[in-house]
């Protein structure tokens, strides 16, 4: 009687252990998930702290970006509008000598800013199809994504020998701008040897 009682207890204990084992197996995924959540939140906390440190470094630093005399800042970038006029090639040389290059227009905001910056001048920009006719490239080699060509441009001179081969782009408030219903300056291709003012943009 006593023996059977013991056996029964053993059996009960075994069953109980088995149940615990099953329960542990059941909660295993949620344990590892909890561990992952803790790690994730730790990572998040770390990046929040890093962000905070960076921000306070930036805010507390005395180094404020400025542009050289005669340059204008727009969106943390410095721009120079020449007073002289010259060929596209000469314009580019001048910009490079200033540690910059001819302007690359790569956002609508920049196009709008430059439209006001040039006032009524016609200015060279860092865009040409000199390497391959009809393939327009910026001076840093990037292809054209955003375009603000004037109506019927680029026309490579339209076949009129008077205009020659037009492989360099300039910005200006040309006569056809009113057809595009906005105040923005537009681009036109022109003989590279034409004498225009130019805009330099400091390199990033
Ligand atoms: Ca730019
Ligand atoms: Ca051309
Ligand atoms: Ca043209």
UniProtKB/TrEMBL annotation:
<keyword id="KW-0430">Lectin</keyword>
<dbReference type="InterPro" id="IPR033989">
    <property type="entry name" value="CD209-like_CTLD"/>
</dbReference>
<feature type="domain" description="C-type lectin">
    <location>
        <begin position="74"/>
        <end position="201"/>
    </location>
</feature>
<dbReference type="InterPro" id="IPR001304">
    <property type="entry name" value="C-type_lectin-like"/>
</dbReference>
<dbReference type="InterPro" id="IPR050111">
    <property type="entry name" value="C-type_lectin/snaclec_domain"/>
</dbReference>
<protein>
    <recommendedName>
        <fullName>C-type lectin domain-containing protein</fullName>
    </recommendedName>
</protein>
<dbReference type="Pfam" id="PF00059">
    <property type="entry name" value="Lectin_C"/>
</dbReference>
<dbReference type="InterPro" id="IPR016186">
    <property type="entry name" value="C-type_lectin-like/link_sf"/>
</dbReference>
<dbReference type="InterPro" id="IPR016187">
    <property type="entry name" value="CTDL_fold"/>
</dbReference>
<dbReference type="GO" id="GO:0030246">
    <property type="term" value="F:carbohydrate binding"/>
</dbReference>
